Amino acid sequence: MSHVMAIDAGTGSVRACIFDLHGSPVAISQRSWEHDPEPGVPGSMGFATERNWALIVEIVREALAKSGLRGDDILAVSSTSMREGIVLLDAEGREIWACANVDARAEAEVRALAADPRLEERIYAATGQTFALAAGPRLRWLKSHRPDLYERADTVLMLSEWVLYRLSGERAIEPSNGSTSGFVSLASRRGDPELLRMCGLRDDLLPRTEEPGTTIGTVTAAAAAETGLGTGTRVVLGGGDAQLAALGLGLTEPGEAAIIAGTFWQQFVNLPTASADPEMRVRVNAAAVPGLWQAEAIAFHTGTAVRWFRDTFAHEEQQRARATGSDPLDILTEAAAGIPIGSDGVIPIFSDVMNYRRWKHAAPSFLNLSLEGGARVRAAMFRSLLENAAIVAALNLEMVEGFSGTHADEVIFAGGSAKSGVWAQIVADVLGRPIRIPAVTEATAQGAAACAAAGAGEFETPSAAARSWLAWDGAVEPDAEAHQTYEGVRERWAEAYAPQRDLMNAGITTSLWRAPGS
């Protein structure tokens, strides 16, 4: 035995990744998957357990074949997944109901629970979660609309834990992904039946709680026959995708901070205590490291907005890219680099600063456009999107540091956007802090692999594995003068955003996104 496997069950796809014990990926297999609306249930998005398990079986076998390894060569397997998705098992271990993280059927239940602000405040203080994405409202919906299933339910699992249940037959939760259910106490890092009772639910649905990196069993003979793994392969608890990405990036100590810059920009700050924000503006989760917690803030649709701009406005740049064999985003970024700080006065209205209690954003728009038009205006609009993402990230970071008393001397900048030197410099300048760019390209899967390696006894802890595997691709220092200039740009953006938020709240414009019940 010489390798470990991570199964990464994301929102849009599932992957099996094999790593050697130096943290290097050896083979990756992936399948896209879709989630099914339930007929007649607005906002629903079910998770097809049997169909999706069949895809997991395929990719595990394919990854083994690509690597040339036998199932017995895999020391341990762990998993990570989209957060908030849940699976209900009956007493015999059959899956009776499941939903993906994007399921939004429980709008009425969210509103009903949030109608008592003291209840939501108590839940948030205990768990770091509001009702918007948690499991409580979804189970309340099930109780009201599918009472037969609710009464049959014996155990609720997060999706990462369901993957491991299918491999081992063992039921357990861990605090990082479990946090996002709203059923795990921040202080104890354990499932708390009182939290279910507070939501008007049965209190007997939670399995035992163990920390990431804990071995809960071995692959069963039945799962081995399906997947090709060995019956001696250990099954090890992993965690939520965001927390394991943070682990894979080496965030293992209090005060460390990272921005994972992709379609959305997820931002993490490690907290030394289980303290939530008194104003309920950010999410607080258990980290994948015992004795550590993470404040999480999200900038919405930052990567989406860049791709949307390319496809909607940059036809000339796309033609040039086709003619030269280049990427149109590179052409747009090069042009944006020639626009001064502040984007020629263009003000982008896209993602707002995080406000978890009332999580919504103004309608997408650009303000203060010049009628001169042409390539320069397009370049200014595109640069404003890059600056907007950095400004929201800076404001989110300062908000977390304000209530937690932490301070990050530097920030890790990872994900697809970190590959852009122009964008990386903008982020450093807006933050006014150095940023470090990791060489890790599979942070989430590598975090799960670190859990597997620790569970296999190859490292003392997942943190030790993650730190030993971490390598850096570069660093960017902020420009002090540019940082000072950006202070005014930030203030101008905040002043412009507020009335746009008012228009959205009044129903005159349509929100970029809003959480259920907001």
Descriptive overview:
The protein is α+β, with helices and mostly antiparallel strands and 518 residues long. Helices cover 41% and strands 20% of the residues. The protein folds into 2 domains: 3-241, ATPase, nucleotide binding domain (Nucleotidyltransferase, domain 5, 2-Layer Sandwich), CATH 3.30.420.40; 299-438 and 479-505, Nucleotidyltransferase, domain 5, CATH 3.30.420. Helix 13 (328-337) crosses helix 14. It is globular, with a radius of gyration of 23 Å.
CATH structural class of the largest domain: Alpha Beta
- The separation of the N and C termini measures 50 Å
Helix tally? 18
The CATH architecture of the largest domain would be 2-Layer Sandwich
What's the number of domains? 2
Within CATH, the superfamily of the largest domain carries the name ATPase, nucleotide binding domain
* Beta-strand segment tally: 22
Uncertain regions spanning at least 5 consecutive residues? none
Organism: Leucobacter muris
Keywords: Kinase, Transferase
Family: Belongs to the FGGY kinase family.
InterPro entries: ATPase_NBD (IPR043129), Carb_kinase_FGGY (IPR000577), FGGY_C (IPR018485), FGGY_Carb_Kinase (IPR050406), FGGY_N (IPR018484)
Compile the SSE list and pairings.
Blueprint: E1 3-9, E2 13-20, E3 25-32, H1 49-67, E4 74-81, E5 86-89, E6 95-99, H2 107-114, H3 117-127, H4 135-145, H5 147-152, E7 155-158, H6 159-168, E8 172-173, H7 175-179, E9 184-185, E10 190-191, H8 193-198, E11 208-209, E12 215-218, H9 221-227, E13 234-240, H10 241-248, E14 257-261, E15 265-271, E16 283-286, E17 293-299, H11 302-313, H12 315-324, H13 328-337, E18 347-349, E19 365-367, H14 374-404, E20 411-414, H15 421-431, E21 435-438, H16 443-455, H17 462-469, E22 472-476, H18 480-505
Parallel strand pairs: 1-4, 4-13, 8-11, 14-20, 20-21
Antiparallel strand pairs: 1-2, 2-3, 5-6, 5-7, 9-10, 12-13, 14-15, 15-17, 16-17, 18-19, 21-22
Domain Carbohydrate kinase FGGY N-terminal: 4-248
Pfam families: FGGY_C (PF02782), FGGY_N (PF00370)
Family: Belongs to the FGGY kinase family.
